[in-house]
Amino acid sequence: MAFPLLFFLLITSLSSIPLSHSKLSLDYYAKTCPRFDSIVQEIVYSKQTQAPTTAAATLRLFFHDCAVDGCDASVLIRSSATNKSERDNDINHSLAGDAYDVVSRIKTAVELECPGIVSCSDILAMATRDLIIMTGGPHYKVRLGRKDGFVSQASHVEGHISRANNSLNQMIAIFQSMGFTVQEMVALTAGGHTIGFAHCSEFSSRLFGKNPDPTLNPKFAEALKRHCANYSTDPNIAVFLDIVTPGRFDNNFLKNLQKGLGILASDSALMKDPRTVAIVNQYALDNNLFFRDFSRAMEKLSVLGVKTGHKGEVRKRCDMFNNVD
C-alpha cells in the first residue's frame, strides 16, 4: 500500500444545553466588552499562522480543562509551593505550550480593552471554537459567562481523561461519567484527533514492545518505527494522528481508521467493537454528519460543569488565582 507524501512530513475526545446554564448567553459581553469576539479572532489567526499546531493543542487543552471539574480554566493554573495543580498531573505534561500561549495573548489584549471583565474560561472556549473554524471545521455556538474556578488539583485528574492505552470500556466509562453517549464520544475523539498529534511515547509499546501490535498495518508500523526511533532520548518527537490531511479538520482521520492507520491503540479500538465501528463508518462516509454531531457534542462539552455568579471569579492572570499572596 502506498502512503501519502504527507506521512513522511510528520511533525517532531447529542444533546440539548441544560436549562441550568441559563446564565450563559451568546451576547454576554455585548455591552461590557464589545470587541471581545474580534480580539479573539485576530489573535487566533495570528497565532495559528505562526504555529500551525496551535488549533490541535488548544482543542486538547480545552477538553482536558472541561473533563476535570468542568470548563473553568483550572488546567491553566500553575502549581505553587502549597498546591500541585492539574497541569502537573503527568497526563497533562504533554499539553503543548502554544495552547497556553494563545490564551495568554488573548487575556493580555482583553485586559487592556476591558479590564476585569472576561474570564479565562470564556477565552479558552472561544479560542477553541475559532481555531476549529480556521482549520476548516464547523461553526458552533459558544455561550459565554463562565467564571474561572477556585480549585486546580493534580489529584482530581486521574480517571477523568482517557489515556492512549485505555480499553474501549474504559473510554466509554470516562465519557459516560461526563454525560456523553458513545456516539458523542466518537465524534469528540475524531474531532480532536483529525488535527491532533501524539508523542511517540504514547504509542511506543505498539511498535517496540515485547509484543508489537499485530493489528497495525505492517508498512505503516515500519514507517512509524523509523520516525520514532529516537523517542526515548527525544521525548518531543511526535506524529500527526491524521497522516493524510493533518492540518485540516475533516473526516479523513476516520477513513484512516478503516484502513488500519490508527496510531493510538485507543483509536484503533474504535474499529474493533460493534458499539463504535458503525459510528466510525457513518462519519467516514458522511462528513456533514460528522460535523453536525461534533458541533452538538462541543456545545454540550463547553457548558460542562461551568461556574457562574459567586461560584467563580474573573482572573487577572489565567495561570494564577486572584487570592494568591
Automatic annotation (TrEMBL):
InterPro entries the UniProt entry points to: Haem_peroxidase (IPR002016), Haem_peroxidase_sf (IPR010255), Peroxidase_pln (IPR000823), Peroxidases_AS (IPR019794), Secretory_peroxidase (IPR033905)
GO molecular function, one term: lactoperoxidase activity
Protein residues bound to Ca(2+) 2: 194, 242, 245, 250
Catalytic center residues: 64
Bound cofactor: record note: Binds 1 heme b (iron(II)-protoporphyrin IX) group per subunit. Binds 2 calcium ions per subunit.
Cofactors that this protein relies on: heme b; Ca(2+)
Keywords per UniProt: Calcium, Disulfide bond, Glycoprotein, Heme, Hydrogen peroxide, Iron, Metal-binding, Oxidoreductase, Peroxidase, Secreted, Signal
Cystine crosslinks: 33-114, 66-71, 120-318, 200-228
E.C. designation(s): 1.11.1.7
Signal peptide: 1-22
GO BP field: hydrogen peroxide catabolic process; response to oxidative stress
Principal subcellular localisation of the protein: secreted
Residues that, per the record, bind Ca(2+) 1: 65, 68, 70, 72, 74, 86
Alphabetical list of Pfam families matching this protein: peroxidase
PANTHER family per the UniProt record, alphabetical: PEROXIDASE, PTHR31517
UniProt function note: Removal of H(2)O(2), oxidation of toxic reductants, biosynthesis and degradation of lignin, suberization, auxin catabolism, response to environmental stresses such as wounding, pathogen attack and oxidative stress. These functions might be dependent on each isozyme/isoform in each plant tissue.
Protein name: Peroxidase
Organism, scientific name: Fraxinus pennsylvanica
Source organism phylogeny: Eukaryota, Viridiplantae, Streptophyta, Embryophyta, Tracheophyta
